[in-house]
Amino acid sequence: MHDLKPNKQKKIKSNQRKQKKQPRDWKKLFHRLLRISIASGSGFLLASGALLTAQMLLESGYFGVQQICVEHQARVSEGDILAASDIKIGDSLFDLELHMIGRKIEEHPWIARADVERSFPDHVVIRVVEREARAIIDLGYLYYVDKAGEVFKMLDADDQLNYPVITGIDRQYLLDNPDQTQSCLNLALQLMDELSGRTLFNLDDVSEIHYDQQEGMILHTRIGGVPVLMGKLGFNVKLNRLEKIYNDLEPRLMALKYIDLNVTDRVIVKVDVKRKVGSS
C-alpha cells in the first residue's frame, strides 16, 4: 500500500546552502599588482643606482686619503710614525688594513699602542700611546724598562741615563725565565714606587736596585754604595724604620758595610772596619 500521507519538504541546513560566487574585481587586482611591480622596480633601480654611484666615487678617488692626522705623540716624531704606517696620499680608505698598520707602528720601540681609524671621506687618524721609561736594566747591555715592567729598548748614545739601574738579572735568565723575570721587575718597580714619595730617603739617594734570588731586593746608596737589604715584602714599613735614623746614618755611610732592614722592628747596621780606618 502506498503511504497516503502528504510528503513534508526537507529543510536544508544553512551551512549546506550554496554560496553564490562573487565576481572578481579585476581592475582592483590589476592596480595592486601594478603598485607591487612599481615598488619592486623602484627598489631595484635605487639599489642599482647606489651601487653605480659608489663605484663611480671609488673610481674617481673621492675616498682617497688626503690627510693623515697623528695624535698624542711627544717623544716620537710625526714623520717617524707616518713612515712606519706606510700610508700614502691617494690610497683608498677601503684598501687600508687598519689593524696591520697599527701593528707596524707598534714596532717602534717607544710606541706601546697605535690605533688607526678612517675618518670619511678622506682622512686617516692615528692615535698613539708612547712608552714611559721607568728604569734601566743591565743585561750585559743597558735597556729601558717601562712602567709596566717591560724591557723595550737598548740604550743608544743619545739616550738619558738618569733612571734607577736594576741589576742581578742577566740576559739568558730573562730569555729562559720570562715569567720569573717579570715578577722580579714588578718587585723592583714596587720598591721604586715606595721610594718615590719619600723625602728623607728616596730614589735620589739610590744608585742601584739589585735583585738576589735569596735575599730579594737590595738597594745601594748613592753615597758610598752601601747595600740596604730590603727582602721581598713590607717595603713601606722597612723604609719607615730606616727614615727614622737616616739623618744620623747619612754622614757615616762611607764607613758602613751594609744596612739590614729584614729583622722585625730593628735596623741592623754593620760597620766596615777597613773602610772606617781608611776614611780616618
Protein architecture, described:
With 280 residues, this protein is of the alpha/beta class. The chain has two domains: 67-130, Roll (Ubiquitin-like (UB roll)); 133-279, Cell division protein FtsQ/DivIB (Rossmann fold, 3-Layer(aba) Sandwich). 35% of the residues lie in helices and 24% in strands. The chain is built from seven helices and twelve strands. The chain has helices at residues 26-60, 78-85, 98-105, 171-176, 178-196, 235-249, 273-279; strands spanning 67-71, 111-119, 123-130, 133-138, 142-146, 151-154, 165-167, 206-212, 216-221, 227-231, 256-260, 268-271. Strands 6-5-4-7-8-9-10-11-12 form a nine-stranded mixed sheet. A three-stranded mixed sheet has the order 1-3-2. Helix 6 (235-249) links the parallel strand 10 (227-231) and strand 11. It starts with 25 loop residues before the first helix and ends with a helix.
Provide the descriptors you would attach to this structure in a database record.
7 helices, 280 residues, 2 domains, alpha/beta, Rossmann fold, Ubiquitin-like (UB roll)
What is the β-strand count?
A: 12
Biggest β-sheet description: 9 strands, mixed
Remind me, CATH topology of the largest domain? Rossmann fold
**What is the subunit arrangement here?**
single chain
User: Helical segment tally?
Assistant: 7
Taking pLDDT < 50 over at least 5 consecutive residues as the criterion, the unreliable ranges are 1-6
Q: What fraction of the residues are assigned to beta strands by DSSP?
A: 15-25%
Distance between the termini: 163 Å
User: Average pLDDT value?
Assistant: 85
Q: What is the structural class?
A: alpha/beta
CATH H-level name of the largest domain... which superfamily?
A: Cell division protein FtsQ/DivIB
* CATH architecture term of the largest domain: 3-Layer(aba) Sandwich
Which value, in Å, is the CA radius of gyration? 41 Å
What overall geometry do the principal axes of the alpha carbons give? elongated
Count the domains: 2
User: What is the CATH class designation of the largest domain?
Assistant: Alpha Beta
Instruction: Kindly report the spatial arrangement of strands forming the biggest sheet.
Output: 6-5-4-7-8-9-10-11-12
The portion of residues assigned to helices is: 25-40%
Run of helices and strands: HEHHEEEEEEHHEEEHEEH
